[in-house]
Design a protein that fits this description.
The complex is a heterodimer of chains A (about 475) and B (about 450). Chain A is α+β, with helices and mostly antiparallel strands. Chain A has 2 domains: about 240 residues, FAD/NAD(P)-binding domain (3-Layer(bba) Sandwich); about 90 residues, 2-Layer Sandwich (D-Amino Acid Oxidase, Chain A, domain 2). Chain A has 13 helices and 23 strands. The chains are: A alpha+beta (about 475), B mainly alpha (about 450). Chains A and B meet through strand 1, helix 1 and helix 12 of A and loops of B. Chain A: This is FAD-dependent oxidoreductase domain-containing protein 1.
């Protein structure tokens, strides 16, 4: 149950403050009004579910939990930065596509689209305007070289079998559909999503989910998680790992309380029943607070998520392909899309190679990266980009899963009440509604049953079996 | 009686040593048990304290429950949360209860009745888990105090009228003017709030939920019975007025009990569900006592004992779950049969006794109560049907929701139950189902004690 508490060190202190507040209200005020005004508001001291991270995944989890349980579950969300200055959610390009090679990813994004289409109805709060997520279903265009043709065909078959609306385009059709793009001989085929792919506004989605969750009773606390305490479960439940000849067994633990620090330096504590790690790029740090990565056996594996910096550039191309331009995703990893709020402006980005990873300690932008890695590819694909000018740029973090750049969802084997929902590495915002629903199902039902996400469990981190997206080359 | 009270006072010296007090209390309860084959009308007389059948049952119940309470509160010791004072407060509460149940004088009874509120309040405020316990403590304190001040006045008036407040010497007052109805209500309201009756029951869910496990167990186990016991003692004086106003209590009891049972089905917090079920049980007890018939009084005493053991055991179970899962919400604590399989046995036995199924004490008591209520008017069958049916429904709801269902994904279990927890639950269940075989201990067998005037 959610219980609020102006933080006191002891019961006696609490009583004395209450009495002094009553006295302060003055003799002229009626007793009842003094009693009503005497309770200061409040800092929750215990809750049922503590969600660490108030970004897209965290807010979506809080929303879905509250939607399912209402007053029956108390949900508290810890968000260290209420302005979301460095959160990946609002710095992302927020594209949404169905074209994945892992089937579950496609299903997750398909639910994301259904959610976006119904967002103004689902996230409407009484007395306020419904959120407008500005979903532009313009499609995603992937192209492949002859080497990647086979992979693309497999992906295409799987996507259509799952119900995704995608169309296969041979080079002639590509040239017919997109006359403003030049396709050389090295392009063998392309796949474009005819429906349910495009981009939307991440701020509206985030704030819509947050506002709806708060209206249903979730509490957002502006604090940073600084510590986690656990209790040893028992002598019966053990988890074992074998490393060569050595087997280390770890008894299961359950997390009990979290310590947090407010912006003004004060420390607080909250006790909970289940913890959801949805801290995005900082999920690895949250794991370290629980000892993941610094222990023995299973506890030696950290949550393999770290912040990786990615740049986005806004360019103005006066002759650029404004009308009917999809999100174009090149086989080299470069992608661009039009900025629907700004005519003739385009967002361009590219994932750097492993060796070229920029330093992630701050969000400064490397402008030369555009000139060397992105512009030539853009010009090769569309000559109209020859005379573009970069207007602005920004950088954001990927919550990069170093193992396989895909979602980690599920309970940790040793910390049996820690549900991890992170590692989405760049396709997080589009899958956030579905991941939030999966978190809700894990917490309440024990496993995510709407979309079977067992393959994304933490077990694959321990057994080091990556579940990679097979990128089309 | 001093043979029981003095050892308890001396146990307080060993407040810091938990094991001595636990064993000491079990020895005291054994000593109380030795007195069960009493055949005097009132015995153990001295210092205006004395025991008769009803008192004896209540004393045995309170010492028994208190020893189980101390066994169940091991967490207070482990978290070093002032456990010396905790044991001291509990022992003080037990002494107050013993004096209350064994006082032979109404004034001493009243004083110790009020006195028992203070250790309870300290228990809730000092060792409760959540900040709402301030409000819970205030509700409990002021509900009881508000209605028991008229009780003081009415006892003084009784002293004035009859010259002595000794229970043995009391004669029923002749009902000659309607003003005596006010006197009757002033007296009875204090106990009816404590029982609690439907419209005055708001303090109970709050106090039970916010109290620590010890507080909940002792509240549900014994303190509610103070109301019933007081009613049995005080109605000797007010029989004629009681006869006229029985329909009030009967209606409030039956209808209120059904409404509260419906509330049970809406609860999410396990402890709140058990607390509301206490109100439902006690409302039937109220109907039985107020009728002041042989069947009714016997049934009321038996249900009080059975409910005390059963509710106390269920609170203990709820705490066991809370210590492991960190949440009392029924949404989170599902599938406990997979999580703690052996505890499922105790959940089953205590739930089944809660809905008065054979062979539990609750069944015996409810049969007696139903007979007494129906013998007053056959129309009461409607209320009794809904009360019994709903009591079964919420108990099954609670059992099924907590025990059945999926729990987590992986093969994961936790400590199904420590031996100490099993012992506490066994000691709760054993009297429930075994005492039935010797229930002449509980059924009040002497008409003289009730001083019932022929109707």
């Amino acid at each position: 149950m959610l219980s609020f508490y102006h933080y006191y060190p002891s019961t006696l202190q609490m009583l004395r403050t209450q009495v002094s507040l009553l006295r302060r209200a003055g003799p002229g005020v009626s007793v009842l009004r003094r009693l009503a005004s005497a309770s200061p508001c409040a800092w929750p001291r215990s809750c049922d579910v503590l969600v660490v991270g108030g970004g897209a995944v965290g807010s979506s989890s809080a929303y879905h939990l509250k939607q399912r349980a209402g007053r029956d579950l108390s949900v508290v969300v810890l968000e260290q930065d209420p302005t979301y200055e460095r959160a990946s959610t609002v710095l992302s390009l927020s594209n949404i596509r169905q074209q994945f090679s892992v089937a579950e990813n496609t299903l997750l994004s398909m639910y994301g689209v259904t959610f976006l289409r119904r967002a103004s109805e689902l996230l409407a709060v009484e007395g306020q305007d419904p959120p407008d997520v500005s979903f532009f279903p313009r499609g995603y265009l992937f192209v492949a070289t002859p080497e990647g043709l086979h992979q693309m065909e497999e992906n295409y078959k799987q996507q259509t079998s799952l119900g995704a609306e995608v169309a296969w385009l041979w080079p002639e059709q590509l040239r017919q559909w997109y006359p403003w793009l030049t396709f050389g001989e090295n392009i063998a085929a392309g796949v474009v999503g005819t429906n349910n792919e495009g981009w939307f506004d991440p701020w509206s989605l985030l704030l819509g989910m947050r506002r709806k969750a708060e209206s249903l009773g979730a509490v957002y606390l502006p604090a940073k998680l600084t510590g986690l305490e656990y209790q040893q479960e028992s002598n019966e439940g053990h988890r074992a790992t074998t490393d060569g000849d050595q087997t280390t067994t770890t008894p299961t633990r359950s997390l009990t309380t979290a310590q947090m620090r407010l912006r003004n330096g004060e420390e607080r504590e909250i006790s909970f029943s289940k913890l959801v790690v949805a801290a995005g790029a900082w999920s690895g740090e949250v794991g370290r607070l629980a000892g993941l990565g610094t222990g023995e056996g299973i506890l030696a594996s950290p949550i393999p998520v770290e912040p990786r910096k990615r740049f986005v550039y806004t360019a103005h191309a006066p002759e650029g392909p404004w009308e009917g331009c999809p999100v174009y995703n090149d086989y080299t990893g470069m992608y661009f899309r039009p900025d629907s709020s700004n005519p003739q402006h385009f967002f361009c980005a590219r994932s750097p190679l492993e060796e070229e990873e920029p330093d992630a300690s701050d969000l400064s932008v490397d402008h030369s990266f555009f000139d060397t890695h992105i512009w030539p590819l853009m010009v090769e694909r569309c000559p109209a980009f020859g005379n573009l000018k970069v207007k602005s740029s920004w950088a954001g973090y990927y919550d990069y899963n170093t193992l396989d750049q895909n979602l980690i969802l599920g309970f940790h084997p040793v910390y049996t009440n820690m549900c991890i929902a992170t590692g989405l590495s760049g396709h997080g915002i589009q899958q956030s509604p579905a991941v939030g629903r999966a978190v809700m199902e894990c917490v309440v039902d024990g496993r995510s049953h709407s979309i079977n996400l067992d393959r994304f469990g933490f077990g694959r981190i321990l057994t080091r079996q990556p579940l990679k997206e097979k990128m089309v080359m | 009686m001093l043979k029981l009270i003095l050892p308890l006072v001396m146990l307080m010296k060993y407040m810091k040593v938990c094991s001595v007090v636990q064993i000491g209390l079990l020895i005291v309860s054994f000593m109380v048990g030795l007195m069960s084959y009493h055949d005097f009308y009132f015995y153990g007389i001295g210092f205006s304290l004395g025991i008769d059948s009803v008192s004896y049952i209540m004393i045995l119940l309170s010492v028994w429950i208190m020893s189980l309470v101390l066994m169940a509160s091991q967490k207070v010791k482990y978290s070093k949360n002032f456990y010396g004072s905790f044991i001291g407060v509990n022992l003080l509460l037990l002494i107050c209860l013993l004096i209350t149940f064994s006082s032979m004088e109404y004034m001493l009874f009243y004083i110790s009745f009020e006195m028992s509120l203070i250790p309870t309040l300290i228990l809730i405020l000092g060792w409760g888990y959540q900040p709402e316990r301030i409000q819970a403590g205030i509700y409990m304190l002021f509900y009881t105090l508000l209605f028991s001040l008229p009780l003081l006045g009415s006892l003084l008036l009784a002293l004035n009228k009859s010259g002595s407040l000794v229970i043995l010497l009391s004669q029923p007052f002749i009902y000659d003017s309607y003003l005596m109805m006010i006197w009757y209500f002033a007296t009875v309201m204090a106990f009816v709030v404590k029982l609690p009756m439907y419209m005055l029951h708001l303090w109970l869910p709050k106090a039970h939920v916010e109290a620590p496990v010890a507080g909940s167990m002792i509240l549900a186990g014994v303190l509610l019975k103070l109301g019933g016991y007081g009613l049995i003692r005080v109605l000797i004086l007010f029989q004629f007025m009681g006869k006229e106003s029985y329909w009030v209590w009967l209606s409030l009891g039956l209808v209120g009990g059904s409404l509260v049972s419906l509330m049970c089905l809406r609860q999410v917090d396990m402890k709140a569900l058990i607390a509301y079920s206490s109100v439902a049980h006690m409302s039937l007890v109220l109907c039985g006592i107020m009728g002041f018939s042989w069947w009714g009084l016997s049934g009321a005493v038996v249900v009080m004992v059975g409910h005390g053991l059963c509710s106390s055991g269920l609170f203990c179970l709820a705490n066991i779950v809370y210590e492991r899962l960190g949440s009392r919400s029924l949404l989170m604590s599902k599938g406990l049969l997979s999580f703690m399989p052996s505890m499922g046995l105790w959940w089953f036995l205590l739930s089944v006794s809660n809905m008065a199924s054979p062979p539990s004490l609750n069944l015996l008591g409810e049969i007696n109560l139903i007979i007494s209520v129906v013998s007053w008017s056959k129309l009461t069958m409607f209320g009794l049907v809904s009360l019994s049916f709903l009591s079964a429904s919420y108990t099954l709801y609670m059992y099924s929701l907590t025990q059945h269902g999926l729990f987590f994904n992986s093969l994961y279990s936790c400590c199904s139950g420590k031996v100490q927890e099993y012992m506490i639950l066994f000691l709760h269940w054993m009297p429930l189902n075994v005492l039935l075989l010797n229930s002449n201990l509980l059924l009040i067998s002497s008409l003289i004690k009730m001083k019932c005037v022929k109707r």
